[in-house]
């Protein structure tokens, strides 16, 4: 599993899990199947309705849809085609900021070399060997493809420090009401703060602690937000395992 760290303009470091080759291939196949099926139906309909020059114009538009599909979807849908949406992966800028038209266009232009002319060989080799999982188009556009739902990884020390469920007494029994996305956010925020304990990450940690306090319906504000979030995380693991 490869990760990428991106520092925002507010000096906050965000960590993303990179989409692996399998996810990207499946997303491409979903897009391709959608295009073939959808455009096949559209072509059949148009051939029954139009004829002559009008049909030629309509078929030219169908070809344009096939060619510009990925560029249009990623530009208008924040870096996600239908296949990427299904696999919950997304194109983002490696540097801080939002990807622009020129970034998406750069990725799109090099699809011809990365995917079509090499039958996906160049893209596969580049994604598998690159530290940021980038094909040539990504390197040119300075983008990467990341997962929107990263896995929650627990280290051996995390497991060894948890008591057995029969003897463990939860401090916050409401923690079992949290959803997995909340717990992942807590874990990632704590990890970021431990690694980069600057003012920006402390502010993010304090804001998250306040939100979790509201979700758990706690009347008192915790004295130590870091310890509070660590306890909530531990309680969640014990109460839901």
Molecular structure report:
The chain is mainly alpha-helical and 241 residues long. It has two domains: 3-147, no CATH class; 156-240, no CATH class. The chain is 60% helix and 8% strand. It has eleven helices and four strands. The strands form two sheets. It has a two-stranded antiparallel ribbon with strand order 1-2. The chain has a two-stranded antiparallel sheet with strand order 3-4. Strand 1 and strand 2 (13-17) form a beta hairpin. The longest helix is centred in the N-terminal third of the chain and has 29 residues, at 21-49. It is elongated and about 75 Å long. The two termini are 24 Å apart. The model has no long low-confidence stretch (mean pLDDT 86).
Give a brief description.
It contains eleven helices and four strands; from the N terminus they run ββαααβααααβαααα. It has helices at 21-49, 52-76, 82-87, 101-109, 111-117, 121-129, 136-141, 156-160, 180-195, 199-215, 225-240; strands at residues 3-7, 13-17, 89-93, 143-147.
Radius of gyration: 23 Å
Distance between the termini: 24 Å
The ordered H/E elements are EEHHHEHHHHEHHHH
- What is the approximate shape? elongated
How many independent structural domains? Answer: 2
Strand elements, count: 4
Structural class: mainly alpha
State which percent range the strand residues make up: 5-15%
Strand order of the largest sheet: 1-2
């Amino acid at each position: 599993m490869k990760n990428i760290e991106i520092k925002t303009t507010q000096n906050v470091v965000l960590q993303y899990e990179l989409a692996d080759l399998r996810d990207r291939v499946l997303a491409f196949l979903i897009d391709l199947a959608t295009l073939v099926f959808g455009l096949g139906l559209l072509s059949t309909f148009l051939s029954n309705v139009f004829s002559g020059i009008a049909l030629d114009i309509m078929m030219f538009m169908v070809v344009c849809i096939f060619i510009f599909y990925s560029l249009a979807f990623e530009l208008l849908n924040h870096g996600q085609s239908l296949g990427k949406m299904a696999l919950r992966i997304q194109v983002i800028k490696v540097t801080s900021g939002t990807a622009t038209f020129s970034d998406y266009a750069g990725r799109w232009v090099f699809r011809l070399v990365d995917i079509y002319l090499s039958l996906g060989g160049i893209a596969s080799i580049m994604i598998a060997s690159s530290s940021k999982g980038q094909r040539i188009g990504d390197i040119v556009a300075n983008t990467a493809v990341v997962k929107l739902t990263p896995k929650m990884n627990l280290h051996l020390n995390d497991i060894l420090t948890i008591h057995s469920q029969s003897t463990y007494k939860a401090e916050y029994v409401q923690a079992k009401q949290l959803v997995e996305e909340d717990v992942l956010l807590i874990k990632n925020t704590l990890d970021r703060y431990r690694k980069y304990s600057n003012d920006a990450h402390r502010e993010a940690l304090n804001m998250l602690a306040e939100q979790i306090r509201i979700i758990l319906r706690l009347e008192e504000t915790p004295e130590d937000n870091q310890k509070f979030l660590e306890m909530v995380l531990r309680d969640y693991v014990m109460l839901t395992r």
